[in-house]
Specification:
By secondary structure, the protein is α/β, with parallel strands linked by helices. It contains eleven helices and eleven strands. A seven-stranded mixed β-sheet has the order 5-4-3-6-9-11-10, with helices on both faces. A two-stranded antiparallel sheet has the order 1-2. The chain starts with a helix and ends with a strand.
Amino acid sequence: MENIFQTIKKSLADIYESEEAAAIAREISETCFHITPVQAYAGTGHPLSQQERERLDQILLRLHRYEPLQYIIGSAYFMGHRFRVAPGVLIPRPETEDLVEQAIHCFKDHEAPTLIDAGTGSGCIAIALKLALPRARVTAIDCSDAALQQAEVNARELGAEVEFVKADLLRPETLPRLQADAIISNPPYVRESERAEMEPRVKDFEPELALFVPDCDALRFYRALAAWGQQVLNDGGRIFAEINSALPDETQRLFEDDGYRTTLLHDRYFKKRMLICQR
């Protein structure tokens, strides 16, 4: 009799802290092998079939290569909803939930806000906004076909009516022409010089296109957001942007120099990670 939870946890002991190893083991046990938390912690085991043994061995191999858990199980939670994710699509982050909550709070009493998610990835921001604000009109853009395909699947499965458009923030001619009350965005902002500090499961597996910017032009996406916002935002419209916590002042100054009134906020980890800019 083999306890899959304990097998995974022990296998990860050398590469993850005990609590994280247990969390990974629990998620895989439940999601991939349908073992309940009670069964996992009680040490309940069962003989593994040849197919289960091969699947477990493959999962352990991928974990030891530092592949993200979310890619292995094929999903990640965001704002209480399970989103499908796959290689080529950025994995939703908990701190991005803080940005979405700011936008929801701002528009919860608005009759029918028009919202744009710039750089949608898995669609987590746009879909979470639509589910929380059913009367909102939500448009989501991305330059990646893989991301848009994944986002459309998530929207369909979660029952969120979102319009997805292929467009590139850095190519203004591709951007949709519409008026909006807000742009919400978690654009690429990690400088190339910061790559070495990142965990292998992020820098070696998640899409570079969604993560990195050159040191010589680290704020390129915020400059593009500021310019686009001047064109599409209604009077008093806002940009909600996740930012590099190492560059809060520089990012804030960029928007203020373009005429926005700004508010810099901390995320749940007490990092200066969110910037709200009002036109």
